[in-house]
Specification:
The chain has two domains: about 5-120, NAD(P)-binding Rossmann-like Domain (Rossmann fold); about 125-160 and about 190-310, Dihydrodipicolinate Reductase, domain 2 (2-Layer Sandwich). The relative contact order is 0.14. The two termini are about 15 Å apart. With about 325 residues, the chain is an alpha/beta fold. About 30% of the residues lie in helices and about 20% in strands. Helix 1 (about 5-15) packs parallel to helix 2 (about 30-45) and helix 4 runs parallel beside helix 5 (about 100-110). The protein contains eleven helices and 13 strands.
Length: about 325
């Protein structure tokens, strides 16, 4: 496991529920994360994993068959290439990379190898979305869908800069392929909002939203994309939290996605919705429920489904 922070720890726990999987090595450049990962893995498997501070050392470990990569985004492309070169299968958190050129390179490298690369797009394995796919597969259900509308609202950010950390960090190793910057705890904690390390929240969460749209619509990538964004609410950030994206597809539909991470706080089960507007009916699907509203139904759904285990269980299904 490379990258043992919040998301990494969550996915590692999902892997740990599979008794055919054993965590034999963990790697992180932040000491508190590394120590916690060693403790968690030891408790789950009754065997202490190897602890590494440089991911190349983990990849050279002959006892490792596959790697989970859950680092900040700017490391994804390089680490996947290196993992494939070392003969390891890969589970990589989204987004897979930052540019089309990087994506093409990763696809070519995976196809030239004997390894498996799986990306953390857990909606692909989520029973709620699989049921929705059955609905959209039959044109008689929704009719022709020419518009998909999605929104995601929340607020996880404070207004104050983070100025200190709780433990030792190898800042140079953490920066990796990114431009060199002076040590900054806020960049470490809020990396998603700095373009040196991420595509911003619209890329981070939009990857899930558009993947779900492509899944249910059976479509490839868009023909054109337009976007409009507001200013970041903190001056040191250089990626916006409030963005609208409009994408046009060869399958003759438009997808409009609006994200606002400077809104009020919502519970996770209520912070997003995707609406597929057909000329027979509309499908609404969020994290934990979906409904189909036929024309003339007076807002009474013909189909309603709620996830029994909740959206967090989707990761367990995916791994």
């Amino acid at each position: 496991m490379i990258g043992t922070g919040g998301r990494g720890a969550f996915v590692m726990a999902a892997f740990g529920r599979n008794r055919t999987v054993r965590v034999v090595a963990v790697c992180d450049v932040y000491e508190p994360n590394l120590e916690r990962a060693v403790s968690d893995a030891s408790a789950n498997s009754q065997r202490k994993p190897h602890a590494y501070r440089r991911y190349a050392d983990l990849l050279n470990d002959k006892g490792v068959d596959a790697v989970l990569i859950a680092t900040p985004e700017h490391w994804h492309h390089r680490m996947v290439l290196d993992a494939l070169a070392s003969g390891k299968d890969v589970y990589i958190e989204k987004p897979l990379c930052h540019t089309p050129e990087q994506g093409a390179e990763l696809v070519a490298a995976e196809r030239a190898s004997k390894q498996i690369v799986q990306c953390g797009m857990q909606r692909r394995s989520y029973d709620l979305f699989l049921d929705a796919k059955k609905i959209t597969n039959d044109p008689a259900n929704l009719g022709k869908v020419r518009m998909v509308r999605s929104w995601w609202l929340n607020n996880y950010l404070g207004t104050e800069r983070i100025t200190k950390l709780d433990g030792k960090l190898d800042w140079d190793q953490w920066q990796g392929p990114a431009p060199r910057r002076p040590f900054d705890p806020d960049r470490f904690r809020n990396w998603r909002f700095y373009s040196d390390y991420a595509g911003g929240i619209v890329a981070d969460q939009g990857a899930h939203v558009f993947d779900g749209i492509h899944m249910l619509m059976g479509s490839g990538p868009p023909l054109t994309v337009n976007a409009s964004a507001g200013k970041p609410h903190r001056p040191e950030f250089d990626t916006p939290e409030s963005v609208t994206v409009a994408a046009r597809y060869a399958e003759d539909y438009i997808a409009v996605f609006t994200i606002n991470y400077a809104a009020m706080k919502y519970k996770p089960q209520n912070d997003q919705l995707n609406q597929f507007d057909g000329d027979n009916a509309r499908l609404d699907i969020g994290r934990e429920s979906m409904s189909v509203y036929p024309q003339g139904s007076d807002d009474q759904p013909s189909i309603t489904r709620k996830s029994e285990r909740g959206f967090s269980y989707a990761t367990g299904l995916h791994v």
